[in-house]
Amino acid sequence: MSNTSETRSTTVHSVDRAISILQVLARRGAVGVTPISEELGVHKSTVFRLLATLEARGLVEQNSSRGHYQLGYGVIQLAAGATRKHDLSVTSRPICMALADEVGETVNIVINDGEEAITIDQVIGSAEITSVNWVGQRSPLHTTASGQVFLAMMRPEERQHILDRGLERYTEETVVDSERLETQLAEVRRLGYAYSVDEHEIGLAGVAAPIRSLGGGVIAAVVVSGPSFRITSENASELAEHVLAAAAAISERNGFPKAE
């Protein structure tokens, strides 16, 4: 029984490494064994063995420069099997449902649409007494946790362009001073998540983390939101652990490499 378990564990580990190799090739293009080995922290002999297996199945091929590997046409065949259009709200929903069950609060998927954040999907948490449908609703980037994630992670010149247009006040807690907001955004970058309370609407708080694409760019945010008497500065960091884990899981579904 023990040998069977060990064999199964080894097989799963090999599959995980093989998938990591495919993700490296998708991100970097044609590359040799050594760079793959260094990026994944895996011995070169292991990388070579897995590449040989992937090449035999048509998922990897050697290009004109011998010793350099790239994705093969077998990957295209696999992609063709995904008959449903890749949609962030579809791929993220199972993870959002699990997150809503874990924390009991509403979970939203939000994207950056110019100078506003717009909610594209929502899962209602069990703690909600009344459900507010946020799907399709927009909010200025500086007033919400998701918007602050987008501002924090965007290019400095892009952020400056938005700040130069002025920051509208929505509540007494809205940060409208650009220098103060920059300090707040630096903290978002340090922590990896944003916490906002009463900045867009009195009584509403949220914790948001970035969802990344294959190349590492921020394409959306996952947000846990609820009343400010339940989501507080005392429990925000604990809640953020769940949100960060969900964001990482959704990012992985979009091809972003899984953190070791």
UniProtKB/TrEMBL annotation:
Outline the extent of the HTH iclR-type domain: 12-73
Q: What is the lineage of its organism?
A: Bacteria, Bacillati, Actinomycetota, Actinomycetes, Propionibacteriales
Q: Which PANTHER family match?
A: HELIX-TURN-HELIX TRANSCRIPTIONAL REGULATOR, ICLR FAMILY, HTH-TYPE TRANSCRIPTIONAL REPRESSOR ALLR
| Function statement | May be an activator protein for the gylABX operon.
Q: Which organism is it from?
A: Nocardioides albus
Gene Ontology terms: biological process = glycerol metabolic process; negative regulation of DNA-templated transcription
Which SUPFAM superfamilies is this protein grouped with? GAF domain-like (SSF55781), Winged helix' DNA-binding domain (SSF46785)
Keyword Transmembrane helix applies? no
Return one GO MF term. Answer: DNA-binding transcription factor activity
Domain IclR-ED stretches: 74-256
Q: Give the protein name, as stated in the record.
A: Glycerol operon regulatory protein
Q: Which UniProt keywords apply?
A: DNA-binding, Glycerol metabolism, Transcription, Transcription regulation
